[in-house]
From TrEMBL:
Keywords: Membrane, Transmembrane, Transmembrane helix. It comes from the Archaea. The chain crosses the membrane at residues 12-31, 51-75, 82-99, 126-147, 167-189, 195-218, 230-249, 255-273. This is Metal cation transporter. The keyword Amino-acid biosynthesis does not apply.
């Protein structure tokens, strides 16, 4: 069996292939409106829920990471400032999603958490929601931070080649992908079509940028790794979105929804710091005019998408009235 390399692909396919694939994914989402009618999600069988979330997770996680990896041959000659601009755009998208999820966590789910008896006393639902939110955001952030510190020490303490470092980066990204999946699973089981579509679109845009991030460590190596390594790193970085979706689908109560959203927010916050560190590694300053502009563009783009999707839903384009 011949072990083929990504460099064996035609140059024209490498250049326009990722754009065509990404366009196909977005067109498929638009034409099929797969998340428009979730009225039966809560009554679906476990197998049906697992299968649907597997498909959604693959669309939001594995596929976009693979698309981003297809630009690997060009990363070798890419000016770092342009790669930084793409990373800043992805950060803007995630920042909007974190704020959007925070708003939903507080106003849609947090205020609706019922009071419960605890050690003979009645605990107010808002207190429970606030506690779950703080523990979810703070705990996830700390775990992600410690994992990041461990990865950096591991990379600095041993002589590792670029491929080994790329696998470590993919592992770190995979941890936060679980948080992305949690948000998707919660939105799905809560039958929130607007939030689900926004999450999928946002994570597709972000995870496309994860592809170059994973393979950046091997971009300047003399020998290109076989395709099987790219496939494995793509699964490690994007596949956990599926796992997170399965876990998030168990959010049958508002309290669990708050907790899962909080975990996702904590993961996103740590990723924003990771993006800043990646940029700072190659550049003197993180906050440049170009990075600020692309960050703002990513944030504004998701803001516009929210308004458009909301209007479509209200007019009954996705959900029959």
């Amino acid at each position: 069996m011949i072990d083929r390399s990504i460099d064996d692909l035609p140059r024209w396919l490498i250049a326009i292939g990722p754009v065509l694939i990404l366009g196909t994914v977005f067109a498929t989402l638009y034409l099929t409106s797969p998340f428009g009618d979730l009225s039966g999600a809560s009554e679906a069988s476990t197998l049906e829920i697992v299968w649907m979330l597997t498909v959604i997770g693959a669309i939001a996680g594995i596929i976009p990471v693979a698309i981003g990896m297809l630009w690997f041959p060009f990363i070798r000659d890419l000016d770092p400032r342009y790669l930084h601009a793409f990373l800043a755009l992805a950060a803007g998208v995630l920042a909007f999603i974190a704020l959007e999820m925070t708003e939903d966590m507080i106003f849609d789910y947090g205020v609706n958490v019922e009071s419960t008896a605890l050690l003979g006393t009645t605990v107010d639902g808002a207190v429970l929601a606030a506690t779950a939110a703080i523990l979810g955001v703070g705990g996830t952030f700390v775990v992600m931070y410690l994992a990041s510190e461990w990865r950096q020490r591991k990379m600095a303490s041993t002589e590792k080649n670029g491929l080994e470092i790329a696998y470590l980066v993919a592992l770190a990204l995979g941890l936060h992908s679980i948080g992305e999946g949690l948000g998707i699973g919660v939105a799905y089981i809560q039958e929130d079509a607007t939030m689900l579509m926004l999450l999928v679109l946002a994570f597709i845009m972000h995870n496309v940028m994860e592809g170059p991030t994973v393979v950046a460590a091997v971009a300047r190596e003399r020998e290109t790794p076989p395709l099987r390594h790219f496939a494995m790193m793509g699964v490690i970085a994007g596949g956990p979105v599926i796992l997170g979706g399965w876990i998030g689908s168990f959010a049958q109560s508002n309290l669990l929804a708050v907790l899962f959203f909080a975990i996702a927010i904590g993961a996103i916050l740590q990723v924003l710091i990771e993006v800043g560190d990646l940029i700072r590694f190659d550049a003197e300053a993180v906050l440049t005019r170009t990075n600020a502009a692309t960050f703002s563009f990513g944030f504004a783009l998701m803001f516009l998408l929210e308004d458009v999707l909301t209007e479509i839903l209200l007019e009954g384009w996705l959900i029959p009235v």
